[in-house]
Amino acid sequence: MSRPKTEARDRSHGRSYVVGFSPFFVCKLRDMPYKPKHPCSFPRCPELVQAGEQYCDKHKKQEQKRYDEQLGTAARRGYGSRGKKYRRWYLQRYPLCVNYDECHNVATVVDHRISVSKGGDFWDSNNHQPMCKSCHDRKTAKEDGRWG
Ligand SMILES: [Zn+2]
Ligand SMILES: [Zn+2]
Prior knowledge:
148 residues, 3 domains
């Protein structure tokens, strides 16, 4: 006979707890921190992404990679055409490998004395030296100072 009494008390306790939230507070909670999500910008990707983001995690990585590759290709192409002309001119002027005494080869490569990755200037002619391929390969095996 004591059991229904306890249940009744629990129920009323629970109700008073719920009533403790004011409707205003519940309302605030509902639209507080969430900006509306929108679909990923990748064609036909149904993934929802946070406001301010363009792609879902998966496509963000994919697009970044694609962007990097495009940039890389453009840069290489740019260096390539200007570099080719310059190289032809440079090798006419300095036709022999800097190590000619050792290798007895004509130069086919314009090398960076200080490799660009170590802070050498790409276009500064003071940083250029004529090299044959085998000397250049030997040098770049140690450091990457490759032309174009
Ligand atoms: Zn996506
Ligand atoms: Zn050489």
